[in-house]
C-alpha cells in the first residue's frame, strides 16, 4: 500500500479525499477510510454484522461497561438528566452573562460548564469534587489551543482527578447527577473505567456541545447570517462543514469487500463524517457555507454528525435545540467575530480555531 499522509494533516487529506468523489480509500495498512454515506450508514447500523459491535462513547474491551443493556440504561438516564436540566435553562440570561469581549472556543465550553454543572456534579457534591471538575475541564477542554503539557503534569492532573473522583464515590452520597447515575449502573467497574466514562460525559456535554456552539457562531457571524430565521439550520450547516465528531472507528468482523476493496478480519474502518459532508456527490458546492440548503430538506440526508444506528448519539436532538437556542440568544447581542490566528484543533473532537467574540449590548 502507498504510504499516505493522513497522520500529518488529516483534514487536508480528508478534503482531498472527498474531492476525489470515490467511496473508500486506504489510510495505511489495515486502515480503510469510508466516505460513502450509504456504506458508512450501513456499517454503523450494522444489520448484517459486518463490523464488531462498538461504541466510540462507551468503548470496548475488558474495562468497558457490559452488557449492552447497562450502556442503554445509563445512556437513557443521562439523557433524562440533560433533558431535565435544559428545561430550566434561560438561554437569554446565559447569553447576557457573556462579557463584551470573550475568547472562544474556551468561552463556549465555560458557558456549557455553567449550564451542565448541576447535572455533572450536583450542588450537594463536595467542594473538592467541584474543584476537580473545574480542573479537568480547564486542563483538558479549555486549554485546547495551548501548548500541550508535559507528561508529568498530565499524569499529575489525572491522578488529582482520580483521587477526587474516588473520594466522592466513596462518600456514597445519593445525588441526582451523572456521577450518581454512573455509580448505579456501572458501580461494579474498576475505578479507572468509571473515571473514563465520567470523563466521556464531561467531554460530550461541555466540550463537544461547546465546540458545536463555537463553530455555529463563528461561521454564522463571518457569513453575515447572524439574524437568520432558522438558527437550527445554522447549526446543521456548521456541523456539516465541521462535524465535531469528525471520525468514528469500527473494525471488520470478517474478511469482506467494502467499497470494492478487500478487507481482512479486524481491519480498522475509519468512517469520516467530515469527508462525507464535503462529498460532491451529495452536496451542491460542498465547500460553500449555505444554511439555505437545509430549507425544506427532508428524508435521509448524508449528514452523520451524531452517527447512525443503535450507537448513535442519544442527545442529538437536545444538542441541536440547545445550540440553536444559545446561538439565537447570543445573536440578539449583535455579535462580531475576529479570528485570532491558527486553525481548528484536532483531537477526539474537532474544535474551532481561536476567535474573539465582541458583543455590542
Ligand atoms: C455536539 C455534541 C455531541 C456530538 C457531536 C456527539 C456525537 C456523538 C456520536 C458521533 C456518537 C456515536 C459514536 C459511535 O457511533 O461510535 C455519540 C454517542 C453518544 N453520545 Fe453524543 N454527541 C454530542 C453530545 C452528547 C451529549 C450532550 C451527551 C449527553 C448525554 C451525549 C451522550 C452520548 C452517548 C451516551 C452516546 C453513546 C450511545 C451508544 O453507544 O449507545 N452526547 N455522540
Index terms:
single chain, 361 residues, alpha+beta, four-stranded mixed sheet, three-stranded antiparallel sheet, 11% strand, globular, binds protoporphyrin IX containing FE
Q: Counting H and I runs of at least 4 residues, what is the number of helices?
A: 12
Structural class, from helix and strand content?
alpha+beta
Distance between the termini: 57 Å
Number of strands: 11
Helix content: 40-55%
Basic shape: globular
What integer value in Å does the Rg equal? 21 Å
Uncertain segments: none
Q: Which sheet architecture does the biggest sheet show?
A: 4 strands, mixed
Q: Encode the helix/strand succession as letters.
A: HEEHHHEHHHHHHEEEEHHEEEE
Strand content: 5-15%
Average of the residue pLDDT scores: 95
Strand order of the largest sheet: 1-2-7-4
- Ions, cofactors and other bound molecules: protoporphyrin IX containing FE
Write the layout of secondary structure elements.
Elements (H helix, E strand, L loop, with lengths): L9 H10 L4 E5 L2 E4 L2 H9 L22 H20 L3 H6 L4 E4 L1 H15 L6 H16 L8 H21 L6 H9 L4 H32 L8 H11 L6 E4 L4 E3 L2 E3 L4 E4 L1 H4 L39 H16 L4 E4 L5 E2 L3 E2 L3 E4 L3
Parallel strand pairs: 2-7
Antiparallel strand pairs: 1-2, 3-11, 4-7, 5-6, 8-11, 9-10
Bound molecules: protoporphyrin IX containing FE (HEM).
Characterize the structure shown.
It is a single chain. The mean pLDDT is 95. The protein contains twelve helices and eleven strands. With 361 residues, the protein is of the alpha+beta class. The longest helix is centred in the middle third of the chain and has 32 residues, at 191-222. Helix 5 runs antiparallel to helix 6 and helix 5 (106-120) crosses helix 9. 47% of the residues lie in helices and 11% in strands. The radius of gyration is 21 Å and the shape is globular. Bound molecules: protoporphyrin IX containing FE. Protoporphyrin IX containing FE (HEM) is lined by residues 44, 55-58, 71, 75, 78-79, 82, 204-205, 208-209, 212, 244-245, 248, 305-307, 311-315, 319.
